[in-house]
Specification:
The complex is a heterotrimer of chains A (160), B (748) and C (81). With 748 residues, chain B is an alpha+beta fold. Among the domains of chain B are: 153 residues, 2-Layer Sandwich (Aldehyde Oxidoreductase, domain 4), CATH 3.30.365; 226 residues, Aldehyde oxidase/xanthine dehydrogenase, molybdopterin binding domain (Aldehyde Oxidoreductase, domain 4, 2-Layer Sandwich). Helices cover 27% and strands 23% of the residues of chain B. In chain B, helix 10 packs parallel to helix 11 and helix 12 runs antiparallel to helix 13. Helices cover 26% and strands 26% of the residues of chain C. The chains are: A alpha+beta (160), B alpha+beta (748), C alpha+beta (81). The structure holds FE2/S2 (inorganic) cluster (2 copies).
Chain lengths: 160, 748, 81
């Protein structure tokens, strides 16, 4: 058995650590070692975005990051979006706009959309569509997802 | 059946409340197939053939079994012999026997203490193959001299003299074709091809199986239908159906592709061999694309005749489809629905189901219909163009309506095809001006929908809230629809209804969520079970009041005395009746089961505007309109979602998606980067119009809506590209290189 | 007697007839009567067919009632995605 490596990192603000095989991806570590099951695997090759997380604020596909690379970093997942029992506006708008059918793409899209709105609180529809182009949704045709994000962005701008 | 007794005024139906599983799904709490772990669990991995067609000479697992952490290896030798018919097909597809039949065919599987060890062990299993000649194309597979996939696979229907790869033959029609074509002012005949497309659900197949030496166990799995899952898995293993209890997880998309089994019987067999330890198996995307799904590919010839004023006089279609190494390409449905939109007197269809060295096809949204629509709706478009006719007016002239004898035989009941055409014509998208290199396409489609075996229960809780238990997994918001229908039936708030998807131990057999049946059939069963509860509650109130139960009516969530002799009593709410039910006769619940036959088909008409870049051949979708008959939209937002999702999948099939096999018979594009489904920047907003022509076979008028939407996009997009470029392209997908070649006048 | 219509592929197995008249009060009885009259149809029915009675498709419902003047069509076996 390959020697396993000890990794200390932060997930949604909580300090955690795990032992990982150097071949394991961050996605594997989050799911299999830390039980962070909101991060989904749709492809394992960086093409679907279901595994989207932030790593020190940068949006990444966790299936393309090695588990050992998380050492000392801050990881953000869908589990960290709500503030206690208060949902993030994006989460609320996704439910209200019926922006999910099966919901398997939803965690990744929420993480990606939140990251965009932190950089650009007022994206155009085209900017949003290109930002989300790495997040596949097979169920919705994206229409309601785009509407939900635009609506959440508008609400967040008003609130700030 | 008349519309009498069908409700028309609703309090909850037609509203768009938040779905009950929404919170779990936006917070990451919802548990899908790969999201469950249990103590002591092992991980499985599958060894797959790298060859399109090969004899399996030897499988040597010695090295793998010697590895630390490896607990079990299985091959076909671990499965019973003597299965027949479809059961044999499924077993052979789950685990190859004498031959590997396609690139990706499972030949062995291993269970180990971690996913990495399992993967390493799978690589250490040595398989010796003797490579055989292969064929992956449908037309090639029918030719004399093509490699034979399996002798004796053809059934009784195949006429003498055809290649043994032709396994089923269909021939249907009516009227006198010669007469019909003689009446035509213009006859157009074209040949078409469509490629295999994968359902492309974002969640790969995943399961957790546990089975002991007594052949009893549990299966947690993402599936569209857990009773199908149970029946097929146990059949493959040769054990009693009831031995396995199947619990469906949340499901990350299916579109027909999760109505059969792949890894699930393997996980159970591995578990048994590993002493009953649970075994989790999760497919990679590569495995999903190489070894599950896709739909059939098709090669088709369609000939239609039309009079100058736009009446279709005759139609003939020949449809050749390959569905992989097993019988089952949906050519039966293709032939049935090819011309079903229209009232045509003289019509004939011929269909060939052909086997090739490709994965066993699985149902994909309206299986068989989109290919046929591509061919027939393209020919109609061409006829309209040549005759200078408006495509919507021409369709209106020929459209099937109530009483029309369908091209497949029976007469239609109330249907909404004309209404979709009229709404499409009236929509502003149909009169938007078009610029240079832009074009507009129109096409229609139909899906006949389904009833299917259905069993559901409704139970009243002590506080008057209600639990609904159905057996159709919720893929796109059906729990919200069931809750709305229950709320409507009881006259109680939507929030007071909880809907559960029960496991196989809790209800009678349910067919999967397929054929656009869940909202129709489980909804019908929910309403009927609710009515049984209401009857019982009226009786409890009548007993209390000392009056005849007939003199009690149910209104707005209350039992009320009614009629001249009922007497004066204050209404009893559902909460009051429920609060004392323990002392008035015990728990109150209702149950309903049926294979309901009152389903009715849904027609749709799509209008698309495209712009084609003359330099690159790239097609951009500018505008897209879906108009479809929902009968009655229970939760309109999720109905729209079905329309939009179907359209997006159809657009992908039309423009980009295709299975590409190399000379070596291996799949060249088993990754999402190369199997390119539409992304957000590929699509515009998708406009929708919900037409409501109620289905008399459902208490609230529901028609299934899930499948029709994938049918019109293939021809609609091709017709729009024709309009923009002047070129009729009869092959899908309309990838840029192909469109560019057409623009440049080259052969495509 | 109910009128039972066969798709053209089945006609060869039923002496070339497009329509046959069969006695029966349910779909099951009519199908049994059909096989009794034309045993060549048995494999086709065994493989599975759908039946439309007076315009309504009644999959696997052998007990669906049939009226003396019903119009019945045999259709290919249906399913969905
Ligand atoms: S799983 Fe990481 S991008 Fe698909
Ligand atoms: S909602 Fe199913 S993939 Fe997006």
């Amino acid at each position: 058995m390959t020697k396993r490596i000890h990794v200390s990192t932060t997930v949604n603000g909580d300090e955690v650590d795990y032992l990982c095989d150097p071949r394991e991806t961050l996605l594997d570590c989050l799911r299999d070692h830390l039980g962070v099951m909101g991060v989904k695997e749709g492809c394992g090759t960086g093409d679907c975005g279901a595994c989207s997380v932030t790593l020190d604020g940068r949006l990444v596909c966790s299936c393309l990051v090695l588990g050992v690379e998380a050492e000392g970093k801050e990881i953000g997942t869908v589990e960290g979006m709500a503030d206690g029992e208060v949902l993030h506006p994006l989460q609320r708008k996704f439910i209200e706009h019926a922006a999910l059918q099966c919901g398997i793409c939803t965690p990744g899209i929420l993480v990606a959309a939140k990251n965009l709105l932190e950089r650009n609180p007022d994206p155009t529809e085209t900017e949003l569509r290109y930002w989300l182009a790495g997040n596949l949704c097979r169920c919705t045709g994206y229409d309601k997802i785009i509407r939900a994000v635009m609506d959440a962005a508008a609400e967040m701008r008003e609130a700030s | 059946m008349a519309l009498d007794g069908q409700k028309t005024a609703y309090k909850y139906i037609g509203t768009t409340p938040n779905r009950p599983d929404g919170l779990d799904k936006v917070t990451g709490r919802a548990r899908y197939g790969a999201d469950i772990s249990v103590p002591g669990m092992l991980h499985g991995a599958v060894v797959r053939s790298p060859h399109a067609h090969a004899k399996i000479v030897k499988i040597d697992a010695t090295k793998a079994l010697a590895m630390e952490g490896v607990k079990a290896v299985i091959t076909r030798a671990d499965f019973p012999e003597g299965l027949e018919g479809e059961d044999w097909d499924i077993q052979e597809n789950c685990m190859a026997g004498e031959k590997a039949l396609y690139d990706g065919h499972a030949v062995a599987a291993v269970a180990a203490t971690s996913p990495l060890v399992a993967r390493d062990a799978a690589k250490a299993i040595e398989v010796t193959y003797e490579i055989l000649p292969h064929v992956t194309d449908v037309d090639e597979a029918m030719k004399e001299g093509a490699p034979v996939i399996r002798e004796g696979a053809a059934d009784f229907s195949v006429p003498e003299g055809l290649h043994p790869n032709v396994v089923r033959y269909f021939d249907s029609g009516r009227g006198d074709l010669d007469k019909g074509f003689a009446e035509a002012d213009l006859i157009i005949e074209r040949s078409f091809t469509t490629e295999a497309a994968h359902q492309g659900y974002i969640e790969p197949h995943a399961c957790l199986g546990q089975m002991g030496a007594d052949n009893r166990g549990e299966l947690w799995v993402c599936t569209q239908g857990h009773w199908f899952m149970r029946r097929m898995s146990t059949a493959v293993l040769g054990i009693e159906t009831t031995n396995i209890r199947v619990t469906p997880s949340e499901i990350g998309g299916g579109f027909g592709g999760k109505t059969t089994v792949f890894i699930e019987p393997l996980s159970l067999a591995l578990s048994r061999k590993a002493g009953g330890k649970p075994v989790k198996m999760v497919m990679s995307r590569n495995e999903v694309l190489r070894a599950t799904g896709p739909t059939a590919s098709a090669s088709m010839d369609v000939k239609m005749g039309m009079t100058k004023d736009g009446r279709i006089t005759a139609a003939h279609g020949t449809f050749r489809m390959q569905g992989g190494a097993f019988a089952g390409a949906p050519v039966d449905v293709t032939t049935m629905l090819a011309f079903a939109n229209y009232d045509i007197e003289h019509v004939h269809h011929i269909g060939y189901d052909v086997i090739t060295n490709r994965p066993r096809q699985a149902a994909y949204r309206a299986p068989g219909a989109p290919m046929a629509a591509f061919a027939t709706e393209s020919v109609i478009d061409e006829l309209c163009r040549e005759l200078g006719l408006d495509p919507i007016d021409t369709r209106l002239k020929n459209a099937a309506k109530e009483g029309t004898r369908a091209t497949f035989g029976p007469k239609y009941g109330p249907i909404g095809f004309m209404e979709t055409l009229e709404a499409a014509k009236a929509h502003p998208n149909y009169s938007e001006p078009l610029g240079p290199n832009q074009g507009r396409g129109v096409a229609s489609g139909y899906w006949m929908n389904w009833g299917g075996e259905t069993s559901a229960s409704v139970a009243i809780s002590e506080d008057g809230s209600v639990t609904v238990s159905v057996g159709t997994p919720d893929i796109g918001g059906s729990r919200a629809s069931m809750a709305l229908m229950a709320a409507e039936a009881f006259g109680i708030p939507y929030e007071n209804v909880r809907v559960n998807i029960s496991d196989t131990g809790a209800l009678g057999v349910n067919e999967p969520t397929h054929g656009s049946r869940a909202t129709y059939a489980s909804g019908l069963a929910t309403i009927r079970a609710a009515e049984e509860c209401i009857g019982k509650m009226c009786k409890r109130a009548a007993d209390k009041w000392g009056i005849d139960p007939e003199a009690v009516v149910w209104e707005d969530g209350c039992a009320k005395p009614s009629g001249p002799n009922a007497g004066e009593f204050p209404p009893m709410t559902i909460a009051e009746i429920a609060g004392e039910m323990g002392g008035t006769g015990g728990p109150i619940s209702g149950h309903y089961e049926d294979s309901p036959a009152g389903f009715s088909g849904s027609f749709g008409t799509h209008v698309v505007d495209v712009e084609v870049d003359p330099e690159t051949g790239r097609t951009t979708i500018l505008r897209y309109l879906v108009v479809q008959d929902a009968g009655k939209a229970i939760h309109p937002a999720y109905v729209e979602g079905q329309f939009q999702g179907g359209a997006a999948q159809g657009i992908g099939w039309a423009l980009n998606e295709e299975y590409i096999y190399g000379e070596d018979g291996r799949l060249q594009n088993p990754v999402f980067l190369d199997y390119r489904v539409p992304v957000a920047s590929d699509l515009p907003m998708i406009d929708t119009v919900i037409v409501e022509v109620p289905n008399p076979g459902h208490p609230y008028g529901v028609r299934g809506v899930g499948e029709t939407g994938i049918t019109p996009p293939l021809p609609a997009v091709a017709n729009a590209v024709r309009d923009a470029t002047g070129k009729r392209i009869c092959k899908l997908p309309l990838r840029p290189s192909r469109v560019l070649a057409a623009i440049q006048g080259k052969e495509v | 007697m109910a009128e039972l219509h066969l798709w053209s592929g089945l006609r060869a197995l039923a002496d070339g007839k497009e329509m046959v008249e069969i006695e029966g009060e349910t779909v099951g009885q009519v199908l049994d009567g059909l096989v009794a009259a034309y045993p060549g149809l048995e494999p086709a029915l065994k493989r599975g067919v759908s039946v439309a009675v007076d315009g309504q498709i009644v999959p696997n419902s052998r007990n669906h009632p049939v009226k003396p003047d019903s119009e019945i069509f045999l259709l290919q076996k249906l399913a969905g995605g």
